[in-house]
Amino acid sequence: MTLPPVPAALAHIEDFGRFVTSAPSPFHAAAELARRLEVAGFVRQDETEAWDVGVGGHYLVRGGAVVAWRIPESVGVASAFRIVGAHTDSPAFQVKPHPDTTANGYQLVNVEVYGGMLRNSWLDRELGLAGRLVTVDGDETLVSTGPLMRIPQLAIHLDRKVNDGLVLDPQQHLHPVWSVGRPEASLLGHVAGMAGLAADEVAGFDLRSFDVQPPAAFGGDGEFFAAGRMDNLLSVHAGVSALIDSTLVDHGTDDIQVLACFDHEEVGSETRAGAAGPILEDVLVRTGHALGADADGVRRMYARSSVVSSDGGHAVHPNYPDRHDPAHQPVLNGGPLLKVNASQRYSTDAVGAALWARACRAAEVPSQVIVSNNAVPCGSTIGPITATRLGILTVDVGAPILSMHSAREMCGTADPYALRQALGAYWAGA
Questions:
Q1: Three-state secondary-structure class, residue 282
Q2: Which GO terms fall under molecular function for this chain's record (predicted)?
Q3: What is the pTM of this model?
Q4: Which of 188, 200, 202, 262 has the most CB atoms at less than 10 Å from its CB?
Q5: Measuring CA to CA, which residue among 239, 255, 244, 217 is closest to residue 398?
Q6: For 321, which DSSP code?
């Protein structure tokens, strides 16, 4: 059974497309999250100021990460945290500190691979650069170019065996072309100029590539959706949409709703803005203390709490069904996934599975289970990292997608809205 693309799901997917377009880098994603939260009445928390636990929504931004939380009227030291985790980053090319290089008259961009990308998917696409520029005095400016560069593939006439297997050396074969015949050209000067800065004003930068092709629905009945950075902006968008939805309803619960959108998941999460860093713990501890809980009281709050780690999961690939477990073959538009792995690459256990079943039942959406083929080890998520760091019950879920870690990924048009509904039901106390 698959979900039909009902009007609410189509409205959600259209807004998701706008969200993806507005978020070509984690820093842009954080800015767009902040904008949406501000419109919904959330108040920004300055980490250098005293902690605000006033009733209503709050959020903080740390680099490319955002944590938002909503304090209910009946909050107290007996409350629990209901946490949804996701991540803002996706595989891309990151520009090196000395970005300019030349070869045979062409001006190339000196890049390195960020995350476990499908390298071939980035060939023959018009790419932009997006991220932040930081001046000597510490001011940050976001910048995003239009079509700027391209990695042209070698013609088949010059590589007759290419269809027997394409091998791309990340140092030799993946330099984007951005100009020709201009040895004096400066990539940083060009990008800085778009932000109204001179190159010599920029002391540091974090710039990554993105595919400039806009998101699009397709299929015989418009049942599919394609976009870049779907892993994991799909969960980020579903999470913030569900959190904002929750501000319109009195759930009658004293639990504190938390949305943690981390950066750097694709490279291990071990940063100040990543899931292995302190950002979520900082929010939970400071909130607990501001409510009057001592250290032991905060740990008691943890013991009552839970985390739903939401990240993209693999739908069964119709051309490679042997790569999937024969008894667990989730499909697009079949509903959100419960992700299970015996080696705890996903953090789900029986208690977490029951928690997710309650949320999906309350939301009236179907749920699918994904378990890897024993001979094909799975990746991991922020789930095990968060569970290990905080000791809070954690379950791994997500929406099914195809072409994961491609420059352009694919999902069903109904699943993102179903995920939003299930996350909302979880926050409502299901």
A1: helix
A2: aminopeptidase activity; metallopeptidase activity; zinc ion binding
A3: 0.96
A4: 262
A5: 239
A6: G
CA distance 3 to 6: 8
How many Cβ atoms are within 10 Å of 181's Cβ, its own excluded?
Answer: 8
Q: At what angle do helices 415-427 and 7-22 cross, to 10 degrees?
A: 90
Is residue 287 within 8 A of residue 69, CB to CB? The reply is yes
**376: DSSP letter:** S
Confidence class for position 247, pLDDT limits 50, 70, 90: confident
Q: Which residues contact 337 (CB under 8 A, 6 or more apart)?
A: 313, 330, 367, 368, 369, 370, 397, 398, 399, 400
Q: Is the peptide bond before 232 cis (omega within 30 degrees of 0)?
A: yes
Rounded distance between C-alpha atoms, residue 128 and residue 242, angstroms: 30
Cα separation, 26 vs 131, in Å, equals 7
Q: What angle do CA 99, 105, 109 make, to 5 degrees?
A: 20
* pLDDT tens column, 386-423: 999 999 999 999 999 999 999 999 999 999 999 999 99
Number of C-beta neighbours around residue 276 at 10 A? 18
Helix (H, G, I), strand (E, B) or coil at 389: helix
- Tokens describing residue 23: 């978020």
Residue ranges with strand state E in 9-91: 43-44, 56-62, 65-71, 81-87
Compute the distance between CA of residue 269 and CA of residue 386 in angstroms, rounded to an integer: 10
Tokens 């905060």 appear where? 298
The SS3 of residue 412 is: strand
Q: How far apart (Å, rounded) are the C-alpha atoms in residues 244 and 259?
A: 11
Nearest to 386 by CA among 269, 303, 233: 269
Domains of the chain: 7-90+228-427 (3.40.630.10), 92-211 (2.30.250.10)
**CA torsion, ordered 256, 261, 263, 267, to nearest 10 deg:** 100
Measured CA to CA, the distance from residue 227 to residue 235 in angstroms comes to 13
**pLDDT by residue (tens digit) across 152-184?**
999 999 999 999 999 999 999 999 999 999 999
Mean pLDDT of the chain: 96
Q: For residue 227, which phi and psi values (nearest 5 degrees)? A: -165, 160
